[in-house]
Amino acid sequence: MHILFAEDSAMIAKPIIKVLEENGHRITHVGDGLEAIEQYVAAPPDLVLMDVIMPKMDGIEATRRMKALPTKKWIPITILTSLSANEDLVKGLQAGADDYLTKPVDFQVLIARMQAKQRIVDMQNSFFGVLDNVHEGILTIDWRGNVQRFNLAAERIFGYSPAEVIGNNVKMLMPEPYQSGHDGYLRNYLAMREPKVIGIGRKVQGLRKNGEVFPMHLAVTQVDSPKGMQFIGLVRDISQEEADRQRIEHMALHDVLTGLPNRASFNNYFSAKISAKKPFSIMFIDIDGFKPINDQFGHDTGDQVLIHIAERLSKVIAESGFVARLGGDEFVVILSRAKTKDEIESVAKDILSELGSPMQCDGNTCRVGASIGAAIYPQHGQNEESLLNAADNAMYEAKRGGKNRLVMAG
């Protein structure tokens, strides 16, 4: 064990240190209570051996202050007192000491006591070793919401050391609005026993030391102990799971090459617009001159052209509408604000101008145009099929009429 030994008398300390070291213990020796507290904080020991009478700060006050400090695990304190100092013995135990030895120290008793403490320390280390090597963060919280335990996984998840968290309110690990509402929720639970999280696992947000807000799964269990009501929180960082889920969802609804919404995403959006029963317009766009680029320069260059087209369409439409790639060189635009022929023609003019500018793709200069067919809801169709057919037929009329132009549905 690592033993912090506070004793101001070198004559008393030396033989005790020698016996302890011979029995395999590592000793940090200090000569007063203040220095003992400093060492206790700097390098928490497995056990403290504390003399009662010392300069600067006596062992009873040092014991009281040590027991008030947040610690990751229980650190037993054994006080050293003379046979006749019963008053000091009582005060020491009342201050939080866990055991005592009388002076002059009987080395056989000392060794036996240390062996007993070693068994406790070993069990405790084994228990915390398990807790520290589980994947989930484990926190113990008292009825006031203050953190009592904080395992290694919780350190990794939140970025705090136990010393920074233990003794503080658990809401420090929560972003708003959870942080402001936590105390009220705990008070309501203690009064009404109506749980929102306790006994019910759910996805919430956590707050790391660096200010990052992240998704986590939280399960809280209530435990009634001799110290009163406590709560055990089991925390799992689901940032990667959420990122993977969002990536899969994005892939399902977006075109892999251009990043634009795909046909499935368009169908969902188009159906919602029809269901809203408010006027809007739709453009069916087929790229002119794309096939010759593919034939002359290859598919890699063709892919670059499609990426440029997607970027330029997105630039023109911006926040005023919805752009999707249906496949190949076919694109579709839904305009919520352009509901008249003049408004649609104005947008189409910008699209044709933007797409008509030369593109540099893999060292090749490429030019394309666009045949655009447009239709207005509900004027040219009152359901998805009829409205899309109207825009599609208008696009083919634009191609037949010379390409690179807009034709409105009749």
Would you kindly provide a written description of the structure presented here, covering whatever features stand out?
With 410 residues, the chain is an alpha/beta fold. The protein has helices spanning 10-22, 33-42, 59-68, 86-95, 107-132, 152-158, 162-165, 178-192, 239-253, 263-276, 290-297, 299-317, 341-356, 384-400; strands spanning 2-6, 26-30, 47-51, 77-82, 99-103, 137-142, 147-150, 202-207, 213-225, 228-237, 280-288, 321-327, 330-335, 359-361, 364-366, 369-377, 406-408. Strands 2-1-3-4-5 form a five-stranded parallel beta sheet, with helices on both faces. Strands 7-6-10-9-8 form a five-stranded antiparallel beta sheet. A five-stranded mixed beta sheet has the order 12-13-11-16-17, with helices on both faces. Helix 3 links the parallel strand 3 (47-51) and strand 4. Helix 2 (33-42) packs parallel to helix 3 (59-68), helix 3 (59-68) runs parallel beside helix 4 (86-95) and helix 12 (299-317) runs antiparallel to helix 13 (341-356). The protein is elongated and about 115 Å long. The N and C termini lie far apart (90 Å).
